[in-house]
Write the structure tokens for this entry.
Amino acid sequence: MFSRVPWKDLLKPTNGWAVPFVTGHTYRINWGDGLDFTKMRMWQSERWETTDSPINFVFNFTDVRQAINFTSDYGSGTQYMNGSLLSTASSDLKTGMNIVYNDTATRLAEFIVTGNVETEGDREVEMLGIQCLGSCVEEVEIEEIDSDYVFWSNPDSWPSGSVPAEGEDVTIEPGVNMLLDI
């Protein structure tokens, strides 16, 4: 079965809206071209019963992520580690437990929503997409540059005497070795 939910920009989070799902099913949420998000939040209704079957959600993403953190209480509660969905007994699963497949060919995240709720914060899950853990900038080795190069950032490198503006079309004449240094 396939259905479409029109997504809207949420200018005021308190004006959000609910999308109903049937327990005991897996839903694949396809974001069209993929979703490159920084943060999403999901709130589980208090109408959920502990006897209700869980719901699995699977969604795609396109941007490289070293991690997607799933944390209860909108980021200030328990963080559920990647793989927790597969490594936890089904009777102990909690909303937000997940597995993220981050390889280039797959890029899928799956998480579960269950009735196993101890506190209200267990109903509030934040998904935080992290592109880079730790230091992500590689050290650049600076080499001596031949005098045959001209620098993009140097106004004297341009016939107009000024560095081109962003979006401006430029022509680098044949035989000119331009070093992009900005």
Summary: Residues 13-130 form one domain.
